[in-house]
Design goal:
single chain, mainly alpha, DNA polymerase, domain 1, hpI Integrase, Chain A, 3 domains, three-stranded antiparallel β-sheet, globular
């Protein structure tokens, strides 16, 4: 009989898997917490249903049926299935089981949804609405600008340090998912504001003992701003120009990518800036506004170019309206 994982061995196996994610895969705390939520929920399901012996594909299917009956969305169910699949794949690699009980269990179809994006005008209006006449207000304004100018994740902004800024080569060294490092270019204007902030933050640091001298964004007491602190700042600022639900920091990351692509940026370049592992992840931002499509068509399509030239000649009186006939179809 093929070797499978016994239910009573599951807690120890989960503990080893979580340690593997942390020490070998260098997964973030957020990622590990998501795996813990999903996998411990599966264990709780098995325990409450008095499942004994080895875990089989039948148990996985019963669990998914339970989630469906509990009104979980297809997206949430897929995430939990993927968590289980990763866990059992790890056990296979460790030689603990012979086959993966999640094999050949398909994920559910999920309706494609476009990311929340603000218009360029809305983002600039939000930034312009912030004063910069005090150390605190200047930091808040810089945080919002940094998100929009770089497309960084919330965790990346919270973890940014003074030593990550290279003013000579004009880029930021960003530690992204999976401890992967990428370089993001910065404009002269953003570099100037970062230099000003580094100078101003020293005022808070000199007034406190034991302050955080490395993290770029800090509180008045000198300690680093956490992800929640930064998220609250962005939410408060964006609420002035955006509807509820479109005020979280990731909206600025979405807007950064969308605005770049709408302006003609290369998809692969945007992928590198965002730190995506796969190009398919970046392709979600390739939704283009109707105005942008019209502009691209007018500039590039041969018929559109011809029509524009005819209009120019007519305006100059060089041809008459009856001289040119467009073909149908």
């Amino acid at each position: 009989m093929p070797k499978s994982l016994l239910v009573d061995k599951l807690p120890a196996a989960l503990k080893a898997f979580f340690n593997y994610l942390k020490t070998v895969k260098s997964a973030s705390q957020h990622t590990i917490a998501a795996y813990e939520t999903d996998l411990l929920q599966f264990y709780e399901f098995l325990r409450l249903n008095h499942v004994n012996g080895g875990i089989s594909r039948l148990h996985v299917r019963q669990y998914l049926t339970h989630l469906h009956n509990a009104k979980y969305s297809p997206r949430s169910m897929n995430r939990k299935l993927i968590s289980l699949r990763s866990f059992f794949r790890y056990l296979q690699q460790q030689g603990e089981i012979e086959s993966n009980p999640t094999a050949n269990i398909s994920t559910r179809k999920v309706a494609k949804t476009l990311p929340d994006v603000l218009s360029e005008e809305a983002v600039l209006e939000a930034i312009a609405s912030l004063p910069d006449d005090s150390t605190e207000s200047f930091q808040q304004k810089l945080i919002v600008e940094l998100f929009y100018a770089t497309g960084m994740r919330l965790s990346e902004v919270a973890g940014l340090t003074v030593s990550d800024i290279d003013f000579h080569s004009m880029h930021l060294r960003v530690l992204g998912k999976g401890k992967k490092v990428r370089l993001i270019p910065i404009s002269a204007d953003l570099a100037h504001k970062l230099k000003r902030w580094i100078h101003e933050r020293k005022i808070w640091l000199t007034q406190t003992e034991g302050g955080d001298t490395d993290h770029i964004f800090i509180r008045r007491n000198g300690r680093a701003l956490g992800a929640r602190d930064i998220s609250r700042i962005v939410n408060r600022v964006l609420s002035r120009v955006a509807e509820k639900g479109k005020t979280h920091p990731h909206v600025l990351r979405h807007s950064f990518a969308t605005h770049l692509l709408n302006a003609g940026a290369d998809l692969v370049a945007v992928k590198e800036l965002l730190g995506h592992a796969s190009l398919s992840t970046t392709q979600i931002y390739t939704h283009v506004s109707p105005e942008r499509l019209q502009e691209v068509y007018r500039k590039a399509h041969p018929r559109a170019v011809l029509s524009r030239e005819v209009s120019r000649l007519r305006q100059n009186g060089r041809i008459g309206g009856a001289n040119i006939h467009n073909e149908g179809g």
